[in-house]
Amino acid sequence: MNALPVLMVSALLLSACMHHDSKPIEFYRLTADVGLKPPPPTPIPEGMIGLGPIHIPDYLNRPQMMVGLSEHQFKLAEHHRWAERLDQNIALALFKALPAQLGSDHLVRYPWPQQQAVDYQISIDIVEFHVGANGQSRLIAQWAIKHKGQTVIDKRSEYQAAASTSDYNSMVAAQSQCLSQLGQEIAAALRHSP
């Protein structure tokens, strides 16, 4: 008869201990305006620019941040998560940073309304985007610019920035730096597009 209250108290104590020891989850967002210099006064082409689609690999398509332990091994950082879907965060960060680089706010995000005419379209395939065991953030992206449906640029770019393997703020700052460099390269390419 007395065993039930003892079991209930034990369960409550165990639950309280587990709750007390659990770390809070921290959330992060990327930016794409780290260390950007003012763009040169080269005018950009006239017309509406469409940003997207942006694709990320499945290994990144999760809330937790991904950290490389070796070339073939990764760990999920359970207590360090993206504040929104990573592909949406990348799109929003570039969408916020590109107008200043282009000197134009004629920019729409994918998917845009069917009736919206887009003169230039930027599509991005993220191939790799994480901090490795060497403490380097690495971004590899295949990106293209189309003008009126015709591809005018198709390029693979790679960026690296020093990070930490234990400080997640440092990791996100380094990844933001890589993303900023990608945005700057895309903006420069657009300014020289036909």
TrEMBL record:
UniProt xrefs under Pfam families: ABC_trans_aux
InterPro entries: ABC_trans_aux (IPR005586)
Positions of the ABC-type transport auxiliary lipoprotein component domain: 28-187
SUPFAM superfamilies membership: XCC0632-like
Protein name: ABC-type transport auxiliary lipoprotein component domain-containing protein
Protein species of origin: Methylovulum psychrotolerans
